[in-house]
Amino acid sequence: MQNRNIAQAKVIERKNKERLLKVNPNLNDGSGIYFMTRFEDGIKYAYIGQALHILSRLAGHMRGYQHIDLSVRKHGFYSADNPSGWKIGFMNFSPDQLDEKEQYYIKAYAQAGYQLRNKTSGGQGEGKKQIDDYRPQKGYHDGLAQGRKNLAKELLHIIDLHLTVKLKDGKENNKVSQKALEKFWDLLKERNG
After folding, report:
1. 89 secondary structure, DSSP code
2. CA atoms of 120 and 117, how far apart (whole Å)
3. What is the pLDDT of residues 121-176, one digit of tens each?
4. Is residue 33 within 8 Å of 100, Cβ to Cβ?
């Protein structure tokens, strides 16, 4: 079973590399800096990365779940049919130059007016700075909280339009029932607020 999964992963990687070579036939698996750029509605976007194996790293962007990976899947690659897709360029550099060159090109693209999709100023070691907000990953509990909020909003809407919420007959003066009604409204308003 594990050998079959490895074989499937290799086939997917090979197909992704073939797709990338259609975008830029000069891509290679040497070390260097790669440049992903796209233009949409007059706005220039860029992502600059470093890799010991450029073609393999770009293939990784096609199956990953980082912000740039998701953008690649959403916008696709540049073609005559997809003029706002990502274009790919690269420059080969030795591994010991990668941090310096990545930082240099991130700054150069920012100064040239590109909206950077990089989260940091580049590099793997010293001098690496955050340049964009990190959004926390949404998890199971975040989904539950959002579901509760959506339910509260919908219930308030239905109550406002169609229902009257009141205590049962004979419970109007019951302190426990009054507190339960207050708690009900507090829960709806807290979740909706």
Report:
1. E
2. 9
3. 666 655 555 555 544 556 677 777 777 888 888 888 888 888 888 889 998 899 99
4. no
Beta bridge partners of 34: 49, 90
Structure tokens at 90: 């690269």
Distance of alpha carbon 62 from alpha carbon 53, whole angstroms: 15
Catalogue all structural domains in the chain, each as residue range(s) with its CATH number.
2-116 (3.40.1440.10), 140-192 (no CATH)
Supply the pLDDT for residue 134: 45
* Cα 107 from chain centroid (whole Å): 22
Q: CA-to-CA distance for 118 and 156, rounded, in angstroms?
A: 41
The pTM for the full model equals 0.63
What does the DSSP 8-state code read for residue 120? Answer: B
Angle (nearest 5°) at CA 59 between 110 and 44:
25
Residue with tokens 């290679």: 28
- The residues, ordered by sequence, that sit 6+ positions from 143 with a Cβ below 8 Å of its Cβ are none
- Residues of the chain under the 50 pLDDT cut: 134-135
